[in-house]
Amino acid sequence: MTDTGPATGAEPSWFGQPRGLTVLFLTNMWEQFSYYGMRALLVYYMTKQLLLGQGHSSFVYGAYTACAYFTPIIGGVIADRLLGKRRAVIIGASIMAAGHFMMAFEPLFYVALATIALGNGLFLPSLPSQINDLYKAGDPRRSWAYNVYYVGVNIGGFLAPLICGTLGEVYGWHYGFGAAGIGMLLGLIIYVKGQRYLPPEAPRVPTQDLPATRWAEHKRTFLVLLAIALSVTVFRGAYEQVGNTVSLWADTGVDRSLGSVSIPMTWFQSLNPLMVMLMTPPLLAYWRRRADAGRDTAPARRMALGAMIVAGAYLLLALVEWSGGGARADWLWFVLFFAIFTLGELFILPTGLGLFARLAPPRLGATTVAAWYLAIFSGSLSAGLVGMLWSRTGHASFFALLAAIAVAAAVLLRLLDQPVRSVDPTWTGK
Fold this sequence. Notes:
Blueprint: E1 13-14, E2 17-18, H1 19-49, H2 54-83, H3 85-102, H4 109-126, H5 142-171, H6 173-193, H7 212-217, H8 219-239, H9 245-252, E3 254-255, E4 257-258, E5 261-262, H10 271-292, H11 299-324, E6 329-330, H12 331-358, H13 365-387, H14 395-415, H15 417-423
Parallel strand pairs: 3-6
Antiparallel strand pairs: 1-2, 4-5
Subcellular location: Cell membrane; Membrane
Organism: Sphingomonas alpina
Keywords: Cell membrane, Membrane, Peptide transport, Protein transport, Transmembrane, Transmembrane helix, Transport
């Protein structure tokens, strides 16, 4: 039984979605497992095993993560114009798996990092850009398919530190890196075996088929996506603090006592992917009911609402810090923060990824999705600049600033509601 075309209600499905979405979901989950598993060990490996200085280690870590979100721009163009999405995923996954296994050999450390980043450039934009092809125009399931896909990111991110991190710390760093490589191979095998459930690819764009007229034809769409990307860059200036300054606050500003036991600060970082997994099913059910009733929320409005919810999460921390007068906050407030924060994240980030894929011009899907990851790259840089204010201002004021940044992003996204609707031919809601 194969499913080689866009899904319809009469065709076989898994969990109410096209079978191909499960294939892409599982492929992505194992890729994220390998990425976050390696990343969880990277700084410790450099400082404890390679005996690199903290400053040098931080520079290498930052350069690697930045490249991981920059190479997809080049990889997306290569996929659209030369390789095709499927071949790009297979080649990219193979290169990444090789890079992870190379991490087990100390002399190949820098070569391994470069190899993983290069493979990621082909893999990252080519996989999610295939989701859109699973659905016919107007299929309401497409609007929340990226939320389902997003769960795969967080399952992999949740399991990786527990498995790769434990193996690396307890049995040796190379065992952890090896586990990350095995995870990447599992994702590759799933993708190769599940290709019969994916729709056929559109013809690739030849080099001579990209004249200036194509820019003129899609100029309005490109400008709208650029505006969305700039708004998301502003948003990520606040969003990315959860792994930076918010983690510092967990160490110094949160009372982590649970009876006679102190909760490890790193455990709180697992709350975000865990809550993504728990919140996504009821949220999708809620959106489905709204879509069935003809009250589906427009993408830009949904993203704006998500930014406002994240602003509320940071405002909560500001109020907790301000009312505490310098005393450590109860850890339950921190759990509540992550619940609100994750809810907002589910409204904005998967929706944005889906919007870029849906509005991609014909035969430029991977390139357009790659532009979404460029927004993550620029947003991460803006978050670094914002994070420099942590030691220069009071914590309550800093959290209030993050709330203000998220509100600014929400306003920008809300202003883009009509422009997004005007360039989205598949939008059928009110």
